[in-house]
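Collaboration report, partner site 2.

Our partner group contributed sequences for two proteins of shared interest, and the home lab folded both. The records are reproduced in the order in which they were received, starting with the first partner submission.
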Amino acid sequence: MSRPMRGFLGFTVLLLAALAVAALVLVPMIVRPMVVDAVHDASPFGDQPIDVAVDIDPLRLLQGRIERIRVTGSNLEVEGAIISNLDLTLLDVSTGGKQSFGELTGRLTDVVLPFVQLEPLVIPTVELSGTDGDIDALARFDLRGGLSLVGNAFAESGIAVESLELIDGGISFGLFGQRVAVPLGVDQGALVIPEVMGGPLVIVEPAPDDQWEITDVRVTPSGMDVRVSLRPGGATG
């Protein structure tokens, strides 16, 4: 083989190698802003500012997957609630028509919810984890929030209680001059006091078409942890 041909083939090999390397760099550079724009368009926060960071593995991208998307933001308002800080990370995100991801982790901090009482209900932290269609949310209430949540249920039911307290596994309160201690539990996806005035008292329950249900509650004298199963796009049960 002549030297010019060998030189040309050598140059071609180097060129193809360079183009391959360039593609590994350029494809993420082109795709990344598209992903950021798509996340902003799908965000429930509208024009409120959020930061979107995208990590792309070119080889995984060829398989229709984005390695990681992280969304952060502060003082975000949605459906009347205010999220002081949001930090969510999605792993192994599909670029196909059916949006899906392999894993989600994250935390919401100081979530302020509108409430029927004079003061709003504050959830100090909500920890999120799970996979597409099956997400676990752990809402951690402090003493004040736990008492507000339970006290509101009594007020809505017209039951006047005194000196409401959180105790291990449940609550304690005064009723008709007597001190009563009852557990908190979960029944058919709702947070309930199983036995009050001859029947259960519902504290929080999903509507029939809601895509969430409460699965567990842990109560201590200093607060309450409520675990919720979220199934976006699917029915509960």
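Second partner submission, folded after the first:
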Amino acid sequence: MAPSRKYIVYKQSFQSPLITSRGRWEERTSWVLREQKEDGSISFGEIAPIPDRNDIKTGEFQAELDNWTSYQIDSSDFLWIRPALTSLASSIWMNPDSPRQYLKSSARLWGMKPDHLEGVVKRKIGILPPADEIPMIQKWLKNLPEGVRVRLDPNESFSRDDLLKWTESLMHFTSVEFIEQPTGFKDDEWLLNYAPQSPIPIALDESLLRLDFYAQIAGFGKNIFFVIKPILFPDWISLFSVLKDCMDRVIFSTAFESPFGYEALLRLASHSPLVPGLERSCFLGNKHEFKQHHQANLSSPSVSVDELDRLWRELD
């Protein structure tokens, strides 16, 4: 069977806008790659830039995609599409007889289903000035049902002073599991120094892509969590190699991928014992969603490669 490489642009609308510190998010755009090898095996990869990420050059990775489909450049020479290429090469697509594992109930994204205040809830913050927002969050935390755990995500919107105010204000709320990626790239090193003494645990997300993560991880404090969005990492083999001894602090999380990238995420999420961040109800009801991706108990794997390929052919 002749090998082939193709990609599509996949756009999916949120059922209701997602409001973050970066603004109003109504639609997600992904570039989804499909590769068929000579033996007939099929795999998928995806790149989906985060809105307002100034370091992403859409035109440059579009050019790489065109070179990739025409086999003009060796895969090792690509830069922008490497996260998709590492997925294409992954063994997650290769064994149709892999045993199915059921994942822990995902953290729910607050505001999508307000009635789901149980288990772990993730809430976006950094939307209002701290003087207005902190009292609001404190009141919300006080009224949460017993046993609910909370992850707060400011999406890099905090200054250093903002973070100090927030951690001091929330230090007595044992329901707060961590604050995720509170500060931006200019404060990455400062955040690493502050995290071990923070009264609220800190989770690193975007900064993992900027720091010398692979070399520094051994020196990271024990109260630092790692939020891993596989769709953003260019080398899954190296990633899993450095994380193998600290999986008890790893949260696999969605970046609101297409069904193809989401299935890849599910197939990786079973490696961590922590509650993952797999909330996808924002796409429930969209035309090309798989019902298996909206079950109360998600599984790994969930949708077969054949099912994904049928969807691909429908979209191509």
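Feedback sent to the partner group on the second submission included the following. The two ends are 19 Å apart (CA to CA). Residues 164 and 294 are 37 Å apart (CA to CA).
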